[in-house]
Design goal:
5'-nucleotidase,  domain 2
């Protein structure tokens, strides 16, 4: 679907990261005590393309901006990947950009899924955003993201200043965010806590100092312990519903779940230029009724794509759970591409259920990453090593499989003692032969397992291989009570 919708400036928005909050009539506004300023910070994180509730977010923002408070709206990253309406749009991610521009978003911290479309798309996004995109621990020595900023000063209509910086998570193994390495080529990433130690004096004389992070709740709590000078940390990445907001070492720590089901709200009161009160909660958007008509119409336009509604196949029942969905995906790759064995990691399975009638939109929601199918010629021992590494990485069963059944034997401390591999014929895999093994290209980039064959791409995405498979098999069966991976003590 290729179309561009004209970007309309958000009412009252001042460029370069400065919020101009709307204000209502004096009769409607709440009159604060002398020397007191009421500040409301709304926040989203890990939206993953789920745009439907933004009409409700718009209505909430509009109402609060008319109340007389200083109102800011922040996003803690991961806006892409998870909704084909956004992921298959041209240019990719455009619905999210236009909605945020219209809502008057004040700042966005990079999440790892901001890199999913590649740096060219991300640079276009940051260049056209009417809000700053921040990430202090991303080093752009080659200039691939010239609009990316480390920190920003936001100024409300009444002059209230917020000093804000961004931080993104990195993987322990490769020092990169959780994405394919080629998607961040040209960038370097510093350890977030080391970088944070350099930012302690960034506040200056501003009354508010905030970390906007994509680290996960556990890391945010650690950051609060390290930086008691922060007033709040507004985070994402772990998809945690923190309600009410936690207080750690005097720092308010907030996160709003995922998939735009909740909108975070932080209330602060300044008295004589200092934070006197602060609290945070979540707004359940499913319970909200009022919607902004303009944003609702815009979302309806974005959702109009008949190609995504095409039915590919049907099943006698819903296909539910990681085991069943992962089995379907890996069966498709193995049979469609002539593999002996296929693996998919649990993190690459993005739905909980496929309904009986499976559409193109369902497949791209299930598997939104555009990863390639990669094949390696592997020995039995290398396959065993991959499963062991995946179990230790995920602290449990992490790989779904086609072409074999495996059992991970562990001790009382959950340490792996052995991995047993049983082939399609019901016999153990042969130790003296090799197998053609396929998997998502994410696995060889993120899992440090032994393999002599460097592997090669088969030139097809995992989602497209599944679509081809379903088109040839319009009636599915056999994906109920599936278990191809087991744990034994």
């Amino acid at each position: 679907m290729k179309r561009m919708i004209r970007l309309v400036p958000a009412a009252g928005l001042v460029l370069a990261g400065i919020l101009a909050s709307g204000s209502g009539s004096p009769a409607a506004a709440e009159i604060p005590p002398s020397g007191e300023t009421r500040i409301v910070i709304f926040h989203s994180n890990d939206v993953h393309g789920k745009i439907e509730n933004f009409a409700k977010v718009a209505a909430i923002l509009k109402k609060e901006r008319a109340s007389g408070a200083e109102v800011f709206y922040l996003c803690a990253g991961d806006n892409f990947t998870g909704n084909p309406v956004v992921d298959r749009f041209e240019p990719k991610g455009e619905p999210v950009l236009e909605i945020y521009n219209r809502l008057g978003l004040d700042a966005l911290c990079l999440g790892n899924h901001e890199f999913d479309y590649g740096l060219d798309v991300l640079e276009s996004f940051t260049a056209r955003a009417r809000f700053p995109v921040v990430c202090a621990n991303a080093r752009d020595d080659s200039g691939v993201l010239p609009h990316l900023r480390s920190s920003v000063v936001l100024t409300g209509r009444k002059g209230t200043k917020i000093v804000l910086f961004g931080l993104i998570q990195i993987e322990a193994g490769n020092g990169l965010p959780s994405t394919l390495p080629e998607r961040v080529a040209g960038l370097r990433f510093e350890e977030p806590f080391l970088k944070a130690s350099e930012l302690k004096d960034l506040r200056g004389d501003a009354p508010l100092f905030i970390g906007l992070t994509h680290l996960g709740l556990g890391q945010d709590r650690k950051l609060a312990g390290q930086m008691p000078g922060l007033d709040a940390i507004i985070g994402g990445h772990s998809h945690t519903r923190v309600d009410p907001a936690a207080t750690v070492n005097g720092v308010l720590v907030a996160q709003a779940g995922s998939d735009n089901r909740f909108l975070g709200r932080v209330d602060l009161v300044l008295r004589d230029g200092r934070v006197a009160e602060k609290k945070g909660c979540l707004i359940d958007l499913d319970r909200e009724k009022k919607e902004d008509r303009e944003i609702k119409r815009l979302i309806e336009e974005f959702n109009e794509n008949p190609a995504l509604a095409r039915v590919l196949a049907s099943a006698p029942f819903d296909i539910t759970g990681k085991e069943a969905l992962g089995s379907l995906m890996t069966d498709a790759w193995r049979r469609e591409l002539g593999l002996d064995i296929a693996f998919q990691n649990n993190g690459g399975i993005r739905l909980r259920r496929l309904s009986r009638k499976i559409t193109v939109k369902d497949v791209y929601a299930l598997d939104p990453f555009e990863n390639q199918v990669v094949v390696m010629i592997m020995t039995t021992d290398e396959i065993r090593n991959l499963i062991r590494i995946s179990f230790e990485k995920g602290e449990g069963i992490d790989l779904q499989v086609s072409g074999l059944v495996y059992t991970v034997r562990i001790d009382a401390e959950r340490r792996v003692q052995d991995v047993q591999l049983i082939g399609q014929d019901g016999r153990p895999l042969q130790e003296d032969r090799t197998y053609k093994v396929g998997f998502s290209s994410y696995i060889p980039s993120a899992y440090d397992f032994a393999h002599r064959d460097p592997g090669k791409s088969l030139g097809i995405t995992t989602a497209d291989a599944l679509i081809n498979y379903l088109e040839k098999r319009p009636r599915l069966s056999g994906y109920q009570n599936v278990q191809r991976a087991r744990i034994r003590h």
